[in-house]
Every structure is written in structure tokens, then in C-alpha cells.
Amino acid sequence: MSSLVAEFVTAVSNAIDNDDLNELQRLLNIDNSVINKKYKGDTAIMKSSRQCNGNKVVAFLLHLCTFKTPILRQVIF
Fold it and tell me: Does the predicted model carry a pTM greater than 0.70?
């Protein structure tokens, strides 16, 4: 996983852990060119993830997260 994507996932996880809905919304609205940029050492998973719908990637990441409050679930979904 590229360091930028790893930083993004960590930031999303931190926003969820801290119930920071504004930061979560800001992160999910960021231009996806950072995620879609090709890097020299990309793995097959990273290459294939650029060929799919970004909504599916976000849904997958959110599915893996645990939510502390029901209101957070309502805001995201």
C-alpha cells in the first residue's frame, strides 16, 4: 500500500475513533487523484483498485470499521 493511501486510511480511522464527523466528511470529499495516482512499486491489489468504482472502495473500508455510535453510522450511510 502506498504511503499516501496508508495515511488516508489512518486519518479516516482516527476520525471515526474520535467521532470527528467534520474531519471524516472532509477526508471523504478529498480529490481521489491521490488514490488513483500510479506508483512505481504498486502491488497488483493497488493496480486493480484503480480500475473499480471509488464508492465500492469507500464502502469496503467503512464495512471494515467498527463504529462507536449509531449517529456516526447514520451520517456515513
Answer: no
